[in-house]
Write a structure and sequence with these properties.
- With 186 residues, this protein is an alpha+beta fold.
- It has 2 domains: 130 residues, 2-Layer Sandwich (Zincin-like); 31 residues, no CATH class.
- It contains 6 helices and 5 strands, in the order ααβββαααββα.
- The strands form 2 sheets. A 3-stranded mixed sheet has the order 1-3-2. Strands 4-5 form a two-stranded antiparallel sheet.
- A hairpin with a 7-residue loop joins strand 2 and strand 3.
- It is elongated.
- The structure holds zinc ion.
- Zinc ion binds next to helix 4.
Amino acid sequence: MMSYRDAAAALWGEAGMYAHDGYACFRAEHFAELPEQLPIVIGITAYGRCLGLTRAGWEHGPRITLASNLFRAGRGHVDDTLLHEMLHAWLHETGQDTGHDSEAWYAAVRRLSPAVLGHELDARRGAGRRSVRVPNPNAGQEGQPATVVRKVAVTEMVQHSDVARWPSPFRPTDHDFGAPINCPTY
Ligand SMILES: [Zn+2]
C-alpha cells in the first residue's frame, strides 16, 4: 500500500514530504496516541484567516489541511500550523474536547509549550478577562442602573485569542521561520 507521504510527494513534491516528515516528528515527540500517518491535504483554504483545518468529526477519522501559502512563508509556519492541527487531532483521538476554549486544549498548551516554545506558558481559561463595574452610559434613563458590569482584558495575562491560535502568536517578533519551501497550488 502506498503511504500518504508517497501520495503527498506525487501531489505536492517537497512540500508534501515536509508535511508528513513533520507529522512523524511531532507525533514521536508529543502525540504518541496519534496514528502513524494521517491524510494531509495542502491547498488554498476556504477561510481567509484559517491556516489549517482538522476534520475529525467524520467517519474516516482526522484529516489535516494546510494552506499552501504557509510553505512559501517559511517552514517554521508549516511546523507551527501542523502542531496546532495535530493537537486538535490528538484531542479527538484521545476522546477529549477538541475546542480552543476547552480545559483540554488549555492543559495541552501548558504541557507542550516548554518543548515547542522553549518556555512555560501560564495559559488559564478566563484569565485574560475579568469583570469590572463601570458607569452605565445610559444611566438616568428609565430603569437603567448607575453602573454596569463589563468584561475587560487583563493585558498582562495570556489572552484566549492567542491560546486559540497556539503556538504562533507566542513566537517572538524576530523569530526565524526558516527557508521557504516550493509548493504548487494547482
Ligand atoms: Zn484550531
